[in-house]
Amino acid sequence: MSLTGKAAAAVMKLLTGKPPKSAEELLAKARKYNSRNAFAMPSDKKAFYRRETIQKNTDLLIVRSKKFADEPEKAVLFIFGAGGTMNAWKPHLMMVRSIADRTNSEVFMPLYPLCTDASVSAAVETAYEAYRRILEDYSPERIVITGDSSGGACCLALISEINKRGGELPMPRLAILHSPSGVPHNDDSWERMELQSRRDGSGTMPLVRFFPEICRHGEEVPEYMIHPALGDYRNAPETYIYYSADETLASLGQDIEAAYNAAGAKLHISYTPGMMHCFSAYPAFPESRKACDEWIAAINSI
C-alpha cells in the first residue's frame, strides 16, 4: 500500500468522527448540513453547465467538458452518495467534471429527494426518470450509470426497477459503482458484516443498522432498495464494483456477486486492501489512480 494511500485512509478515519447514536441524530446532522448546502448553479468556468427540471420539480444538473470541440459521444448518469441524506452535490462536482473531461461524456446529476424528507423510493424514482430523460438523446448502448456509496446502491436499485417495470426502458451499457452501500439481507450476511467491521475503524456498522428506518421513512418500499442482495439483475449492464477490502460494506460484495451470477449478468468486482470507502472515485494516489484508469477506460470503450 502506498504512503499516500495510507495517509488518505488515516485522514478519512479522523474526518468520520463518532457515529450518531440514533437515526434521529443522523437525520438532524444531515438536515443541518443541507440547510447550508442548497443547490445553486455552479459559477466556475471549468465546464459547461445547464439545469433542467424533471418530474416533481426535481433539478437535473447537466455537465459538458470544455476540452472537446465535438458533441459528447456518450452520457453518464451520476448518482452522488453521502448516505442518501446529505445534499452533497457540490463535493461531487470535481468527479463529474473529471468524467466529462476524460470521456467526452455529457454527465447528468439528479438532485434527488433525500431520505431526510422522503423514502428511498423517491430517489430511485428520480433516477429512473433521469435515465428516461437521457434516453431521449442517447441510445442505451452509449449510456453509463455510476454512483458512490448510497449513489451506487441507487444504481443497483435502478437496475431492479427497470426489470420491475417490465423493461419499458432498455438497460444502459455499463454500471460503475464505488463502494455501494446497503443492508445485509439475512443472518449469515449480518454475521459476515459484523466480522468485516472489525477491520474498519470508520464506525460504519452502527449506520448500517439505521439504514432501514431512514430508507423507509415511514413507508413501505421494495426490499431491493434496501438490500442489494435481493435485486433483480436480469439483463443488467456489465458492472464494475470497487470496494476497499477493509471497509465494512465490502461484505455486501459476496451477496451482490451471487445475485448477479444467478441472473447471468456480467460483474467485475474488486477488493483493494488498506483503502478507504469510495477510494476508487478519485485518482488521488497510486491505488485509486489504477482503479480510476480502469473504469475510465471502460467508459471510453463504448
Structural commentary:
The chain is of the alpha/beta class and 302 residues long. It has one domain: Alpha/Beta hydrolase fold, catalytic domain (Rossmann fold), CATH 3.40.50. It has nine helices and eight strands. The chain has helices at residues 3-16, 23-35, 93-103, 120-135, 150-164, 187-197, 204-216, 252-263, 286-300; strands at residues 48-54, 58-64, 74-79, 105-110, 143-148, 174-178, 238-244, 267-272. It has an eight-stranded mixed beta sheet, with helices on both faces. α4 (120-135) crosses α5 (150-164). The longest helix is centred in the middle third of the chain and has 16 residues, at 120-135. The radius of gyration is 18 Å and the shape is globular. It starts with a helix and ends with a helix. Residues 3-16 have low confidence and may be disordered.
Topology:
Elements: H1 3-16, H2 23-35, E1 48-54, E2 58-64, E3 74-79, H3 93-103, E4 105-110, H4 120-135, E5 143-148, H5 150-164, E6 174-178, H6 187-197, H7 204-216, E7 238-244, H8 252-263, E8 267-272, H9 286-300
Parallel strand pairs: 3-4, 3-5, 5-6, 6-7, 7-8
Antiparallel strand pairs: 1-2, 2-4
Helix pairs in contact: 4-5
Q: Summary?
A:
This protein has 302 residues and is an alpha/beta fold. Helix 4 packs across helix 5.
Number of extended strands:
8
In DSSP terms, counting alpha (H) and pi (I) runs of 4 or more, how many helices? 9
C-alpha Rg (nearest Å): 18 Å
What are the segments in which pLDDT stays under 50 over at least 5 consecutive residues? 3-16
Mean pLDDT: 92
Second rung of CATH, namely the architecture: 3-Layer(aba) Sandwich
